[in-house]
Task: structure prediction
Amino acid sequence: ESILNGFRQEADTFRSLKTRLSTLVLEENRGTFVSLHKKGDLRGCIGNIDPVKTVFKGIRDNARHAAFNDSRFSPLSYEEVRDTTIEVSILTRPEIVDYTDARDLITKLRPGTDGVIIKKHSHSATFLPQVWKQLKDPETFLTHLCVKAGLSSEEWKSGNLTVLTYQVQLFEEGL
Result:
């Protein structure tokens, strides 16, 4: 709705999504991410892991930011809307992965199911579970996640990272 309101259009897509979610879920404080894809390519993605807003407010705010404020992309234009799909992820609370070494970490990750957060000092990054579609191999997944966090690509092998996992409830529709 936030995106289409930016163009002063009716938000039929978001309303149909809203009807598929129970009112109780919309009122819960949960982490949410909104990803935009234009013809299958990422066009914007903004979210929050921590449950700082209700699902409704998180989706609304993150949709607007993904469309107009993702620093990796120019603001979404009206002409792009027809070719853009919106993906909404509602997150479970992240849980710490207790692991002993790199091999143990890999056995505890569930490709395609787990979103992964890594943290070390002031560095952190996350990949939603959907990223497993592009980075199917756990070693490659963790290597890219370390780079995203601004760490050495091999840092995940050190065993000195805090690793958390979460799952998502996923909704996707065209704008």
About this structure: Residues 55-68 form the longest helix (14 residues). Helices lie at 2-6, 12-20, 23-27, 55-68, 102-108, 138-148. The CA atoms of residues 94 and 166 lie 5 Å apart.
